Amino acid sequence: MRNNDVTGVGVCHLCAKASIRTLFIDSPFGFSYDRPVSRYRMGEIVNLENLKRLVKDGESDVVEFKKSTAQLQRAGETLCAFLNGKGGRVYIGVTPSGDIRGQEVTDKTLLDISSIISQLEPSAPIDIERVATLNGKEVVILNAHPIKAYQPFTFMGRPYQRVGSATRTLPRSGSKASPPK
Prior knowledge:
This protein has helices spanning about 50-55, 70-85, 105-115; strands at about 10-15, 25, 30-35, 65, 90, 120, 125-130, 140-145, 155, 160-165, 165-170. By secondary structure, the protein is of the alpha+beta class.
């Protein structure tokens, strides 16, 4: 069944084929999407105009900008921090000053993003959204949905937290520990 109205939280999977161009998103409601699907706050489609509005507000405790996928390691740390907090979005192709530059998104780009997401433990619900820019490039949005029951999440074995617009290593005392005996 196909449905263009997404109102639930989905989990993105990247096709493992060498000629990957499509994101497959499975929602908990059983819908499957075989084209890039973008969402903005409870089902509103993210387009370039919505992206400009979102970026205008700058970085915050739930928004992070990365100029390109050259910063994927830091993007993974930020996703981990969002998962350990109240969620958030990493915009790849937007400079820290909020300039929407986009980048070329190739099969390798998507596989690199998938590889970074796979470094999150436990497995995390990350939506991948793509928005075309006027220069023929795309902004990739990684949307993290926290699940309190699975916190703390780790990225490459380390937990992270978001403090304002900064991502920091979660102190050991901030990690959820086993209940006292």
